[in-house]
Design a protein that fits this description.
Immunoglobulin-like; C8orf32 fold; 7-stranded antiparallel beta sheet; 5-stranded antiparallel beta sheet; 6 helices
């Protein structure tokens, strides 16, 4: 088990005075198999005139807020302590041929099956066009076990694409990232999800954090971590398995889940609208993911 303290700070600086801000955050880590969050809070400066915590359609915890006092800066800071354990190993369902898994997903009518069927459909940021289907085809050969196919897909994305934060933005489509062969974790997750869904299978977008470890002999830099994104694929009878194509791994105890949905549009860390006569603003984001001592380990020998 790993225990983390996560701090996510976002500051907006506006060119002109903002007369009102209305927004919503997805910054509170969610309870999930293998993850137990504690002491999760979101604070705002200026203090909102109204704030409400709710659970959205996908079960994520959101904080909605409105600030009606004029302001030129807005700071949002989320802090939490999260316990993360190694996810259980996939069972024999992992060996299910992907075609059988596809048929099981579309046959099931219980709550889990209906959730999976929704995650097998195209969504606003995950299109299922011809280019996606062509890229997916080599991984999904007839009779191949589903998990093996998705792991192969993740490895190909990791190999074929360059990590380049200047190549894309939050509005980049799957087809654009596929053509450029460049992008960031959001693009790689969207592409992998599109490839899985193009086969009639279920995959969801997961937003969160990844503990980063500095090179040997190098001190960890405060604020240098970042949000991260990956996908989870539904194995009928076995639940959801996380795959991180950016790092070419199954998700583990270094991955911290904040929220999940159909794509990034369902779970942005912060979204909203402002009323101002200004046309520009600056945004600064800092993230710290710090591993804490295991409280059950006892004092050092």
């Amino acid at each position: 088990m790993n225990v983390y303290k996560v701090t996510h700070r976002t500051e907006y600086r506006y060119e002109e005075e903002v007369t009102a801000s209305y927004g919503q955050t997805h910054l509170l880590p969610r309870a999930a198999p293998g993850q137990d969050p504690h002491d999760a809070t979101v604070s705002f400066r200026p203090v909102p005139d109204d704030r409400r915590t709710r659970t959205d359609f996908h079960g994520n915890r959101c904080v909605a807020f409105s600030i009606l006092a004029p302001h030129t800066r807005l700071t949002i800071e989320a802090t939490s302590t999260v316990e993360v354990t190694v996810p259980p190993a996939p069972t024999l369902a992992a060996d299910m041929p992907w075609e059988v898994a596809r048929d099981e997903i579309h046959r099931s009518s219980d709550a889990t099956g209906l959730e999976a069927r929704e995650m097998a459909l195209a969504s606003p940021r995950v299109g299922l066009g011809p280019a996606v289907r062509a890229y997916a085809a080599p991984s999904f050969v007839a009779g191949r076990p589903l998990l093996d196919a998705v792991v192969d897909l993740s490895h190909r994305i990791h190999t074929d694409f360059a990590y380049d934060p200047r190549a894309t933005d939050v509005g980049t489509t799957v087809d654009e990232a596929l053509a450029a062969r460049k992008g960031v974790c959001q693009d790689f997750a969207h592409l992998a999800i599109a490839c899985v869904r193009a086969q009639g299978l279920a995959a969801r977008y997961v937003s969160g954090y990844l503990e980063t470890i500095p090179p040997p002999g190098t001190e960890r830099l405060e604020g240098a971590d970042a949000t991260h994104a990956w996908l989870a694929v539904h194995l009928p009878g076995d639940g959801w398995v996380g795959i991180d194509p950016t790092n070419d791994v199954l998700t583990g105890e270094r991955h911290i889940t904040t929220a999940w949905g159909r794509d990034y549009g369902d779970v942005p860390p912060v979204e909203g609208i402002i009323f101002t006569s200004g046309s520009t603003h600056e945004m600064e984001v800092s993230v710290d993911v710090v591993r804490l001592p295991d409280p059950g380990a006892g004092p050092p020998a």
